[in-house]
Design brief:
Blueprint lengths: L1 H8 L1 H6 L1 E6 L6 H9 L4 E8 L3 H9 L6 E6 L4 H5 L4 E4 L15 H18 L4 E4 L4 H15 L7 E3 L2 H15 L10 E3 L6 E3 L11 H12 L1 H8 L8 H18 L5 E8 L7 E9 L2 E5 L7 H26 L2
């Protein structure tokens, strides 16, 4: 049935499948993400890129008995080859968070990395879907957009900040709290992808009965789940495995929509005018061309409205920081 659906919508796509490139494939997120994408039946070519050790990662992943053909590329001089013909580019590149670091602390290093990769994408695969995982997402997505604009190839329907980890955490924590089946729990999470800019809409969870204490505790845990992992790893790492899982989930859902599956809706950080912030995570209907429709996030509780009002100045400032970085480069 899946093959027939693809043939009806995009006949050539059904024959060749999707080519996916992972930029930052040798890192703590990139390696497990590459493994998970190798297992995705929609992926027929998987190009792994990083500045070090990519050939070893590619060799290792290539031994998994799934149909995706894996190739490794090392160094910026090979970025163009890694990106050539890519339908989807997933970008976990950059340095990870360390104890005591905020996502803003990551900005100076990761901003330059993301800008350089965006320039390579603009040249090699300007019509691909770009999925940005590199933190701080609230700034790196605007950096990516502004870089593509400078190159004259920006399409807001094809650029996504991957905020799926916030949804994954919300689904997990809410299902534990409410004794729900986690596979049937879906929490809408809006805003951004850092601390208090992450806003789970607990008031909209069907059948849930939260106390005020539950709402406070769950909201905080979802917002600062990354800190929980950094602490648990004793400062030796950050949320790499769960982020890889979340990255694969969003990529897989986008590939399904590109292949013709209908009514694929996921929360993602995209350009829209729902709020005063230029980029905002909200439910989005995905399709063959990327963003098909930006959906409203619905009625908020008083607690949630307060959180939204408080986050918007931060989201606006963090987006401006990214834009200014590119303009002043």
């Amino acid at each position: 049935m899946f093959t027939r659906a693809i043939r009806r919508t995009v006949s050539t796509q059904s024959q060749r499948g999707f080519k996916v490139a992972v930029l930052g494939a040798s890192g703590g997120i990139g390696q497990p993400l590459s493994l998970l994408l190798k297992l995705d039946p929609r992926v027929t070519e998987l190009n792994l890129f990083d500045v070090v050790r990519t050939h070893g990662v590619a060799a290792d992943v290539s031994h998994c008995n799934s149909k995706a053909k894996v190739s490794g590329f090392v160094g910026m001089e090979e970025a163009g080859k890694a990106l050539d013909g890519a339908n989807v580019v997933v970008i976990p590149a950059g340095v990870p968070r360390k104890p005591g670091m905020t996502r803003d602390d990551l900005f100076n290093t990761n901003a330059s990395i993301v800008k350089g990769l965006a320039e390579a994408c603009a040249t090699a695969c300007p019509n691909a879907m770009f999925l940005v995982i590199s933190n701080p997402v609230n700034s790196t997505v605007p950096i990516f957009a502004e870089t593509l604009k400078k190159k004259g190839v920006y399409n807001p329907r094809r650029l996504f900040g991957v905020t799926t980890l916030d949804v994954v955490r919300a689904n997990t924590f809410v299902s534990e709290n409410q004794k729900f089946d986690v596979n049937n729990t879906k929490v809408t999470v809006i805003g951004g992808h850092a601390g208090t800019t992450i806003l789970p809409l607990l008031s909209q969870v069907p059948g849930a009965k939260f106390t005020d204490a539950d709402i406070d505790a769950l909201t905080h845990r979802i917002q600062f789940g990354g800190d929980e992992v950094v602490k648990a790893k004793d400062g030796s790492g950050s949320a790499t495995l769960s982020m890889a899982y979340a990255g694969q989930v969003f990529t897989s859902r986008l590939l399904a929509a590109m292949g013709g599956e209908k009514n694929v809706v996921e929360c993602t950080f995209v350009e829209n005018n729902l709020t005063a912030a230029p980029f905002f995570s909200t439910p989005v209907r995905l399709g063959p061309n990327g963003v098909e429709e930006v959906l409203p996030f619905g009625k908020l509780s008083a607690f949630e409205q307060k959180g939204l009002d408080a986050m918007l100045p931060d989201l606006i400032a963090q987006a401006k920081k990214g834009v200014d970085f590119v303009k002043n480069a």
